[in-house]
Every structure is written in C-alpha cells, then in structure tokens.
Amino acid sequence: MTVLASSDAVVEKSATNGQVLGVVDLRPSISVIGLGYVGAVSMACLSHLGFRMVGVDVSFEKVRSIKEGRAPIVEARLGELLAEGVEKGRIDATQNLIAAVLETDVTFMSVGTPTAADGGCDFSYVRQASRAIGQALALKSARHVVVLRCSVPPGTTLDVVVPEIEKASGKKLGRDFGVCFNPEFLREGVAVADFFAPPKTVVGTSDEQTAGQVAAIYGAVDERVIFTSIEAAEMVKYADNVWHATKVAFGNEIGRLCKSLGIDSHDVMDIFVQDKKLNLSPYYLRPGFAFGGSCLPKEVRAVAHIAKCQGVSVPLVDSLMASNEAHIDQAVKLLEPHAGKRIGFLGVTFKPDTDDMRESPTLALMARLLAKGEQLSAYDPNLDFGPHLQGQIDYVKHASPAQAKLMDALSTMVVDDAATLVGGSDVIVVSHATAEFRAAVATSAPGVHVLDLARLYRELPTNAEYQGIAW
Ligand SMILES: NC(=O)c1ccc[n+]([C@@H]2O[C@H](COP(=O)([O-])OP(=O)(O)OC[C@H]3O[C@@H](n4cnc5c(N)ncnc54)[C@H](O)[C@@H]3O)[C@@H](O)[C@H]2O)c1
Q1: Is 119 a member of any domain?
Q2: Which one of 68, 186, 236, 330 has the minimum C-beta count within 10 Å?
Q3: What is the pLDDT of residue 399?
Q4: What angle do CA 382, 384, 386 make, to 5 degrees?
C-alpha cells in the first residue's frame, strides 16, 4: 500500500499491519553530462535541493573530484555543496555516459560549445554526447527527458541534438523521449547564489509533459518559469549575452570619452543607471522601425564627433547610424517585390502622437522609394499643412537634401483619412502601431500587402499578405 507523503515522496506501508516499509522519492533522478562550470554547479545545487544526481565527464580528474565531493573549479560554496551531496548519498559521477543515462530519468547536457574555426559554433561535443544519449535510450524502455543547457545557435536542439539521438536510438521525439532547451544564466564567481536566485528560468520545449517535468525541477528556486519555443529559448541566451557585452562596451566607451574630457565617468553612469524609466527598462528594446526624431540621430552624431576630436575610439557609438541605416535598407528591400504598385504609408512623423517630422525614418524610406520612381501616398493624423509644418518641411529640405524632392511633393501625396489611404493602396506600409491604423489595416481588401514596421499585433497574422520588418 502506498500513501502520498508529499508532492516529492510516497510512503510504502504493509497492507496487513500498516507498518512503514520505506519511503519512495518521486523526484526524477538527473544525470549531468559535462562537469565544467555549468555542470558542476548544477550537480551541487540540485543535490542540495534533494535530487539524486549522476555526473558524467570524459575527464577522469573531474569525475574523481565530484565523486569525492571536491569542487573541480574555483566557485564559491561549490565544494561545500558537493561534499554535502556526497555525504548524503545523492551524488555519484562516472565516465560511463550510457550507464548514467540508463539509471536516471532526466539528462542535463552541459558540454562545451566553443567557437569553431569559421567563427560559428563547434558542435562536436554536443554531437558526441547526443549520440551517446541515443545509444543509451536504445537500451531503455521508459520515457526519458533530455535538457540542453549549452549556449548554442537557434535550431541546434531540433536540428543537431534530436537527429543524433533519434539516429542512435531508433526512437522518436515526443513518443519515446522529450527534449527541452533550458539556458543557463549563471555568472561565474556567484554561480551558486545565481542558481538559488536566478534572474529568470526559461524552458523552451515542444511538448507540455516535458515542460511540466523540467519546470518541477526548478520549483523550489523559481515558481515563475517562462515557457517558450525551443528556438526562442536558444535565441534568448544569445540575446542576453550580446546585450551584456553591449552594456560593457557602451559603459567603457562613455568612460574613455569622459576621461578625455576630465569628467568622472562613475559620476555620469551613477546618474545614468538611476533612470529606470528609459535607460534600464524595456523601453527602446522592442524591435520596430529605425530611430529618428530631433534628438537621437543628432546626439549620436554629436558624441561621435566629440570622440573624434578627442582622439577617442568609440566603435560602438560610431556604428549606430550605420545600424539604423541598415534597418531602413531592409524596409526598401522588403518593398522591392512590389515595385510599380501603389504604396501607401500610415504614419509619416518620426513616431506616433507628434507632428515632428525631423529625421523621421519613414521620410527617409519614402525618399528612397520616390527616387526609384515609386507611386506614393500617405496619411498621418498629426500632419496639418499649415505654417508650422512648412517650417519643418524647410528644415528637412535643408538637413536632408536627399529628401528635398519628397518634401516638395509631400502635400500632394497626403490624403485626408486612413480609409482613403487603405482604399487607394496595393501595399500599405505601417510606421506607427496605433489603434486607428490597426482598424484601418483590418479593412484592407484581399490581396493588399501590408508591411508592418511597428508591430501592430502581438499575435501575428498568418495571411501571406502580412509581413513584418523584424518578426
Ligand atoms: N561558464 C559559464 O558561465 C556558462 C554560463 C552559461 C552557459 N554556459 C554554456 O554552458 C556550456 C558549458 O560551459 P562550461 O563553461 O561549463 O564548459 P566547460 O568547458 O567548463 O565544461 C564542459 C565539460 O564537458 C565535458 N565534456 C565534453 N564532451 C563530453 C562528453 N562527450 N561526455 C562527457 N563530458 C564531456 C568536458 O570535459 C568539460 O569538463 C557551454 O555551452 C557554455 O557556453 C556557460
């Protein structure tokens, strides 16, 4: 007779006299392949949470170190937790990957993914480990879960790991084994502390059963697991690290510039980081159209100029206008297949809710199309062709000679309302994500193509006529 003792265990009792025969742990046992910085920390921390762990590495030294409860690397609290795990009988380690997979329910893979000779990702360790997992699964009847923890290019889990496992095992993803991508966000030096207080826990998987199993493992440290697709989870890890690198490079460029100007960069950045509304926030981080307006391009140019005068190298700042231009180039490219059609723009000013046209990236796009001889029209609720707008038109003509022809013709292109624009266009380019434009686009006739530069909808339309610039 079994009695549920907690969500983690059942007590087995004698059916005749009720005597306790033993306690069965319901938690999955976990094998960890690769006992480096990520794997060793996973071993230590998950064993501390009560999981039975089996570590695997090709290195005899690392295996011996883990078996003896010693940290194979320098990492705060790691030795202490490994020793605790060994003492409580929750930690074992081996060089025999197949045996480790066979005696566990879940396998975490944390082998290295170094840079390949061509600058891409070297998959050789991931392939070897996946093949060996497949060989083990060929011998196993119970369902197994494989959790990829390495940082890899999007597509690796489904295009590299799964085919290797299926080929070696003869088994099928979903039916015989589950797979998920669970990126690791630890920082070396404080990795144990990060494990118990993670910045986030992300599980990318294609089936709910696997998602639930993996989320349950992290239940004690993070109840708010973020579920997503495997590819999005893979990409998040890369996006995170590129962002962190961007932050460091940015801070250091500001630092070099400040030093050359006799300003204490820590005074500047201490103030900078206090702005949680625009600086350290989701603001400006959603993909959309290029930046513009009266401030951002002007000030990027100004800072690049100061740096040049000071003889300070700021390649990140110098790259920003080129990056912005590349985004406008992409919009031009996406419209190339529609050459000769009537192209209507919803939104002309540099962003919604303003009449400011200065350095509007939409005007830059329209000017490029006009120069190619395209037939354009536009609607913007904030454009009012009075004296104020004429001042802006004169300003744009002066600041951007490439847009002079467009500025002269703009008043003849602009129509009075969104319905007229939509009704008279074969292609609609949306620059502002407003309720008015969303409603207008919804009335477009079948066959009218929509190029969305502003992300009108969170859930994307699936019709072939709809296209986004970065989604
Ligand atoms: N180090 C970090 O802070 C960190 C953080 C997040 C993500 N990551 C990612 O996690 C992965 C692992 O990183 P790491 O720093 O722990 O690497 P690491 O080089 O320290 O450890 C990898 C281990 O895998 C072992 N290994 C390789 N092939 C094996 C095989 N076939 N069978 C068994 N063991 C094998 C190696 O011997 C090594 O001990 C990488 O993809 C890395 O990008 C690392």
Answers
A1: yes
A2: 68
A3: 86
A4: 145
